[in-house]
Amino acid sequence: MEAIVKTIFPFAVVSIGILLAFQGVLMIVAYTVLAERKVLGWMQGRIGPNRVGPWGIAQPFADLFKFIFKEDIVPDKSTKFVYFLAPIVALTCALMPIVVYPFGPAITTIDWSFLPYGLGEGITQLPMTIARIDVGVLYVLGITSVGVYGIALAGWSSNNKYSLMGGLRSSAQMISYELAMGASVIGVVMLAGTLELGGIIAAQSGSMFKWYIIPQFIGFIVFLIAAFAETNRIPFDLPEAETELVAGFHTEYSALKFALFFMAEYVNMFTVSVMIVTLFLGGWYIPGLSLIFEVGSIPYALVSHIGFIGNICAFLFLYIWIRCTLPRFRFDQLMNFGWKFLLPVALANVILTIIVVYFLNR
Fold it and tell me: Which residues of 106-121 are buried (b: 16+ CB within 10 A; e: fewer)?
């Protein structure tokens, strides 16, 4: 019995961690959708959802059940296997980066000796990260880049000219803005000396003035703009562009498959917000918190986690604010802006950072 428990215990702990992380992210995504509808309503002089539950707080679950029970319409001449696969690819690639995000500092003050069968032996901390990968930044950029295949495949497999144009637009946007986004991260990596997300946060700890938004402000702005294009949000939502392409790549999608695309977009918004906070705003580090709580204690980790989520919610609100404020670009304007302005600025920032780091390390 003891051998069985010791074999199962590590898998159970990891499974519980994965479940909590993904469930938490999906709840944030659900209420981001509600917040967007409410905030847009207030900004436009409307009320917004307020019928399902107190103040409309149950609206996301009502929408989910509606998507589940709606009729699933599949175009006759679509490439059905790819048509069904595309939303799964989009959502999977949006969710996978969550496993490497450090949502808070490790808890080191718990005594695990109370666990039976000696399971607590050798456990010195409870990390707030599912998996620590030495190349976490590359992992996130790589996985999020693959997500465009879901949109491109959806546009092609639907056998609809508007869907195909939306998929092609998304591919062109990804090529244009992925370069600028990657270049904007290089400066942070050079300053931190690591590609591991926890290490980047550690390099910014100790003082608010160590946050990389200060020396890498240009990189921060470039990353933020590229993030709007990567997530296909206004003013860069050309792959959908209701006024031109009906609904773009998901024109032919309905019911639960449409809901998967919908969720993928908002999960991508969350993913990008986490990256911005981690790379440029010190991640979960809160200045002065160590003077109030013991580092490694549960209260310290809990408050740090809440602060981290608060920063993420601020950027999610920025997405909503921009949607209500700015008009959509024309596609030629979007491409010109990406290639002729954003990419040169990102490369200039990399060159400037190289010069500064070289002279600092001499």
Answer: ebeeeeeeeeeeebee
- What residues have CB less than 8 Å from 205, skipping those under 6 apart? 282, 285
Q: Centre a 10 Å sphere on the Cβ of residue 322 and count the other Cβ atoms it contains.
A: 15
Give the dihedral of Cα atoms 333, 335, 336, 342; nearest 10 deg.
110
The backbone torsions φ and ψ at residue 171, rounded to the nearest 5 degrees and listed phi first, read -65, -45
Residue written as token pair 């149950």: 58
> Do residues 279 and 212 touch, judged by C-beta distance below 8 A?
yes
Give the pLDDT confidence score for residue 254 in this predicted structure: 79
CA gap 14, 8 in Å, rounded: 10
**Cα distance between residue 106 and residue 111, in whole Å:** 14
pLDDT in tens, 52-89: 888 888 888 888 888 888 887 888 777 888 888 888 88
Q: Which residues are within 8 A (CB) of 149 and not within 5 positions of it... i.e. 6 or more apart?
A: 89, 93
Low-confidence ranges of the chain (pLDDT < 70): 1-3, 5-6, 9, 112, 114-122, 239, 241-244
Number of helices and strands (H, E) in the chain? 13, 0
The helix or strand, by DSSP H or E, that contains position 312, with its residue range, turns out to be helix 298-325
Q: Considering only CA atoms, which of 281, 334, 348 is closest in space to residue 308?
A: 281
- Over residues 16-31, the pLDDT tens digits come to 878 888 888 888 888 8
DSSP string, 88-118: HHHHHHHHGGGGG---SPPB----GGGSGGG
* Backbone dihedral angles phi then psi of residue 107, each to the nearest 5 degrees: -95, 120
List C-alpha distances in Å: 260 to 77, 83, 146. Answer: 22, 13, 16
